[in-house]
Amino acid sequence: MSDFVGKAMNNLAERLLHFAQIGAVGVLLLYAQSKPAYLFYTAKGKPITYKQVRSLLSRADVVFFGELHDDPIAHWLCHELLRDLHKGQKVALGMEMFETDQQAALDRYLRGEVTMKQLGEIINLWPNFSTDYAPIVDFAKEAGIPVYATNAPRSLAREVARQGLAVIESWSDTQKALVAPYPIARLDSLPSYQRMAEMAAGHGMNPDYFRQAQMLKDATMAHRIARYRQEGVLFFHINGSYHSDYKEGIVAYLKVYAPHLKVVTITTVLTPDPMRYRPPKKPIADIILVVPERMTRTH
Predict the structure, then answer these.
(1) Could you name the CATH architecture of 37-292?
(2) pLDDT digits (tens, 9 = 90+) for 137-148
(3) What is the pTM of this model?
(4) What is the C-alpha end-to-end distance of the chain, expressed in Å?
């Protein structure tokens, strides 16, 4: 048997095994498009449809959409899911992209008192805000969906990155009100926080303080969600995937502030071929959005 035929047989055997694992519905989903722009999978690697994803999200109290900040597919699906969920139930939107000290300016925009251009003059918007996040905020504005700024102010996070969480004791009451209540629970043992030591080294920063700054952000986002979330209203939160992967980060802190809430998480994963995606043994999220790694980046 030639090497070519041998490789072809191995490839066929691999695909047949994959088909056996995902079932007939999975096969139809995978090959509905020969080159899909995205696919959804369960944590165990079973393909699911957009409709099934929407149904799963509709039964949650809080949804965390873990996106990649430069991925157009994730941003588009954030927008579409929010629209479709709004058709059948009350929803609220929370965004990492806005900091708590920006809430007043954001509210002015939502009320129509300032334009998007003026909003950008009042607060610092992310560089890709107009292309990636403005459409979502504008839909919320039109639909009357409340939008909450959940992230800790970057100036305060920088202070913690330099001096640790203990610096919060020296802050004014106004500053303290912008973040999660002090003392903040220490979740240092979580793997996601442990991995931050390498990131800190790359920035020449104290790894303990760098990790504590991340905890400040995650705790603040979780506390804002617990504070603003209302019974019977689905809270849809958009954040970078690292903040909610493995149900750590914001999700772990939400268990501290509101352990009774039902949470569903989505993460975004880049892979050479979405049709060949295999999940890791430890579930990253309840739903995996798989996007081709060559997908155009937005910035």
Answers:
(1) 3-Layer(aba) Sandwich (3.40)
(2) 999 999 999 999
(3) 0.89
(4) 48
